[in-house]
Amino acid sequence: MADIMSECTQVYRNLLFQYFEITESQDTEKLIDGEQLLDNVHSSLKSTGKFDEVYSKFTVFRDENNVEDMFKYFWNLEENDKFLNFENIPPKKSKRLSVLLLEDGKRFMENKDFVKALDLITLSLVYAPHPDILEKDHSDESSDEESLSDLSDLSNEDGSGEDSVPQWIKTNSSENKDNLVINISSEEKIEEIYDTLSLAYASRAYVLFKLKQYDICLKDINRAMENGTPNSVIREIFDMKRKCMMILQKQQDDNMKKSMDLLENMKSSGFSSEEYLKTMKGFMEQCYENKDPSTTKSFSQSEKMYKAAMEMTETELLFAYKNPLPPKIVESNPSIPCFSSAIKVQWTPERGRHLIASRDIKPGEVLAVEKAYMWTIDTQNPLTMMNFCSTCLGRCAAPLPCPQCSKVVFCSDTCRSTGLSTFHKIECHLLPTMTELVSPVLHRIINIIAQIPYSELKTKISQCKQEEMNKPRKHHGFNDHMIYDSTDYRTIYHLEGNFSRRLLQQLIHLCAIASIAVKMLIKSNMYFVDEEGIPFEPSESDIVFVGSVCLDQLNKVLCNASMVDEYQINVSELDEDPETKKVGSGIFPAICLLNHSCNPSAQLNSYGNTAVCHSICFIPMGGDVTIAYDSTYEISEVDARRDNLMKHYLFICTCEACVGDWKIDISKKPKLSTKKLMMHIGIDSGTEMALKIQLQDIIKNFQIVILDAKRNKFPSSVHINTIKDTIEFFDKYVELPDNLYFLAQRYLISLNFDFEMSACRYIREL
Questions:
Q1: Is the pLDDT of residue 454 over 80?
Q2: Percent helix, strand and coil across the chain, each to the nearest 5
């Protein structure tokens, strides 16, 4: 049976990817693969004997740090004009494909496979022709004010019964067939009534109703009605809406009753008035949010969710995910608001800008909370693009489509309005082409440049160049008020790009990507516009200017982009470390100031397009605050680590783990470090003996914590404090590397998903 289910799942996944291949193949007849474009340039330079000349010129440009002349030279090469040409694919919808997807989704609905139906119908929404979005969309705020007084006959409906599938859902329904298969064989002019879009919203609402997602179901019903639901289905849609409202009202009433019962028990048990009022306020808030207050126990939110997820069916797990808000910094650094006051920037000629502790930092502290200046979703994975919001990078089970392109989705009307008015405004017209060119770095650079109107770009670049010449290196990126503002382009401009260290072949490759980026911006007719927004034909001077900015930023993007990910928590086996799923990438200008170490003192976690940095060891005042750009010392050998860092970041690592060639020896017992003891003034033989005894106690307590945590699945605050104390003691007094220290540190990191320190999804894998 398992083999059959696995085979069906694979067929279903192949079906999804087949749909993507169908729509892309229709659009890309004239487009050459992106890698082939670049290969053609290299091949031509070699066959015509120009390679030596180009290398010679590029060597001079690189040594002189002359980005502008390098791009200008490449732009004027015959190969650039001859081989880096492509047809720009405009954003479009496909009514034909939307109908096919909707029909297949309905087949799964008829078989009561609502999970697969949900995916296919969401794809149908993505491809369905869509009306323009007004500047302010109120769909999420729609009111449901219909009277409930006449709905007593519906009180037992909860969406889970075995009632027959409505006639309009069936794929063989003759009554509605004309509605579903309008223009199925051709892409004709979109009609005033967006029937495919409306029917897709109505169909998804039905799926969500059956999955008991009543809040989301109501929103889809409202959208179906707003987009002109056909008269043949309007009555059934309205009835479903009323059922949803009744169920939600009943849930709220039940939760209110539970709240009052719990409060009454508290009152009779002698709780203080202050405790009573505080609890009452919390219960009322939960009732308004339609949550059961009886589940409010002394568990972490993650523990409650995990316990619930263990009982969930595969269908229910579809909605078992968290997009938590990032934590707040207790006290911010006045000069770098996204940093804690516990860290500050320092600059030295040998190490450039880096971060150090301005006080002692304990394990587990929040050191930075920063929203990305630029972010992109993983365009190489269609399923990721359809399950994560392009604006906030949060997971969404019932997303909203872009009204123009079929490449991104949004989690809400708010995120959609934000995206359409900012980064996606230009990106929308370029994503179909960028996806085919298969260059994530091209997508990133387009999004950086597109955020600054061309009419403002020259002023900003001129300002940044003046700062580069006149400000101390330590202050690069700070504004006139000496604030490092992550939303300010100057923080991106002043990042390290290691231009002078790059191989010549790399620079030729980057020039080609910059050239493609400029050509895409020209073809969009949306970037080269004057202050009134009227497009103009850019001069060579305009092109070279923007191209050199693209080339400069490409170097910096390659060295500074961070992955945005999501934890995948297997509810079948909590003992396993959660896996991470790539969602996209982002540039976090302040976090980019963190240097690398193969034995890092801090860890990054993703909250959508916001990154949070936690300390994972004890950092003494003046100590380095570092993260791992690549693998750490316990995962790979020193030579492999150094090779990877040189390849991607262009430096040789000299951290203590590399210099000392650290390796984990599981047979080695923890012992005090003579070097560390000598650093602590006043430690005599008596103190050393006391520390040895304390070390044995630390080891014993840590082992108890590990065993207890395995039994109880979720650690208590006492357990967490013991782990932190273990790490701090080892950092201060014990010789490293050490296996027990490594285990304690990994355990602290694994607590990230337990204590809402990142986005996560619950899955079940045996």
A1: yes
A2: 50, 10, 40
Count of other CB atoms within 10 angstroms of residue 526: 18
Rounded Cα distance, 272 and 275, in Å: 5
Q: Which residues pair with 400 in a beta bridge?
A: 410
3-state DSSP of 480-520: CCCCCCCCCHHHHHCCCCCHHHCCHHHHHHHHHHHHHHHHH
Residue with tokens 């004010």: 145
The contacts of residue 238 (CB under 8 Å, 6+ apart) are: none
| Per-residue pLDDT tens over the stretch 329-362 | 999 999 999 999 999 999 988 888 999 999 999 9
Q: Which residue has the tokens 């008269």?
A: 231
Question: Is the pLDDT score of 7 beyond 70?
Answer: no
| 584 contacts 376 by C-beta, under 8 angstroms | yes
Note the pLDDT tens digit of each residue in 550-568. Answer: 999 999 999 999 999 998 8
Domains parsed from the chain with CATH numbers: 95-130+164-250 (1.25.40), 254-308 (no CATH), 674-750 (no CATH)
What is the Cα–Cα distance from 117 to 102, expressed in whole angstroms?
Answer: 9
Element (H, E) at 645: helix 638-649
Give the DSSP per-residue string, 340-368: BTTEEEEEETTTEEEEEESS-B-TT-EEE
Lowest mean pLDDT among 32-46, 112-126, 331-345: 32-46
Could you give the CA distance from residue 17 to residue 125 in angstroms, rounded to a whole number? 16
Q: Which residues pair with 345 in a beta bridge?
A: 355
Which residue is it, tokens 């014990």?
A: 734
184 CB-contact burial (10 Å; exposed 0-12 / middle 13-18 / buried 19+): middle
Long-range contacts of 531-540 (CB under 8 A, 24+ apart): 531/455, 540/75
Distant-in-sequence contacts of 635-644, Cβ < 8 A, 24+ apart: 638/598, 638/662, 641/598
Total residues belonging to the chain: 766
CA distance 96 to 119: 17
Q: Going by C-beta distance under 8 Å and a sequence separation of 6 or more, which residues neighbour residue 13?
A: none
Place of tokens 């004890």: 618
CA–CA separation, 658 and 652 (whole Å): 10
Question: DSSP states of 506-558 as a string?
Answer: HHHHHHHHHHHHHHHHHHHTSSSB-TTS-B----HHHHHHHHHHHHHHHHHHH
The DSSP call for residue 680 is S
The predicted pLDDT at position 261 comes to: 61
Q: Cβ(502)–Cβ(555) under 8 Å? A: yes
Mean pLDDT of 301-316: 70
What angle, 0 to 180 degrees and rounded to 10, lies between the N-to-C axes of helices 95-110 and 2-27? Answer: 170
What end-to-end distance do the CA atoms of the chain give, in Å? 14
Lowest mean pLDDT among 81-90, 208-217, 443-452: 81-90
Residue (of 597, 589, 592) closest to 619 by Cα position: 597
Which of 513, 517, 547, 505 has its CA nearest to residue 37? 513
Confirm if 206 and 240 have CB atoms less than 8 A apart.
yes
Q: Which of the listed ranges 314-318, 324-328, 641-645, 710-714 does the model predict with the highest average pLDDT?
A: 641-645
C-alpha 744/C-alpha 709 separation (Å) is 13
Residue 517, number of CB atoms within 10 A of its CB: 28
Contact 436, 412 (CB under 8 A): no
